[in-house]
Fold this sequence. Notes:
The protein is 5% helix and 19% strand. By secondary structure, it is mainly β. It has one domain (1-265). A four-stranded antiparallel sheet has the order 1-13-3-6, with no helix packed on it. Strands 2-7-8-9 form a four-stranded antiparallel sheet, with no helix packed on it. It has a three-stranded parallel sheet with strand order 4-12-11, with no helix packed on it. The two termini are 28 Å apart.
Amino acid sequence: MFLSPDSRRARARAALGPVNVQTFTNFASTGRWVKPKVGTFVFVQVWGAGGSGGCRATTGSAGGGGGGGYSEGWFLMSQMPAVVFVAVGQGGPAVTSSNAQGTSGGASQFQSGVNGVLAAGGGAGFHTAASTACGGGGGGDSQSEGGDGASGTGGSSTWAAYASDGGNSATAAANALMGAGGGGVSSGNAPGVGGNSFIGGAGGGATGSASNSAGGTSVLGGNGGAGNSGTNATDGSQPGGGGGGARNGGNSGKGGDGMIIVWVF
């Protein structure tokens, strides 16, 4: 289930206990954060964008996009500049032509000098001809973008302890704390579902001639989109869900855009 900004705010408040939240700012797109006059601490949460799924003609298969990564940081208000540039990564665009790889998701960054907070994007889903294994995009982490899927292999994730590789078989991509990998397709054309994530973006589902697969789910990030055949695949949700793979005339799913939330206490 995708949590709205209000839901995430409520969960964070409950976890923090009886603290006084001075301001709360949600950036769904690039902008500027202006330091308020009141507050002692600043807490920043950053999600990278999800990769889009691959797209294949009638006789092939396509992997799902990887989920975007997550990072966070605490700052003293007294050490913050008056204005901070906030860059929100864009999800990989949907693929509208057959036999084309998806696009990786963009990184998001709260650019507070050397103490900025960055979260990388998820990798792109691949596409292959029939009876050839097809990889999903790897999940992103707090520093490194997930690798793109390829023929026979899923995209790799640099920080394996926190993000998962894209799938390359009928089994689901592994679950992850940060960005989860997109589903892959086996040589028997059986697609795998996208990996689940706790706080990053979930992976998109794959599609093959055997069936379609669902995207993964995330507790605090965006869900992955489902793979589809004959109609458009589902987009990943914001923040950072990977897009689903598509075949047989449909467009692949777009990756969910990143997001940045700034709390002042």
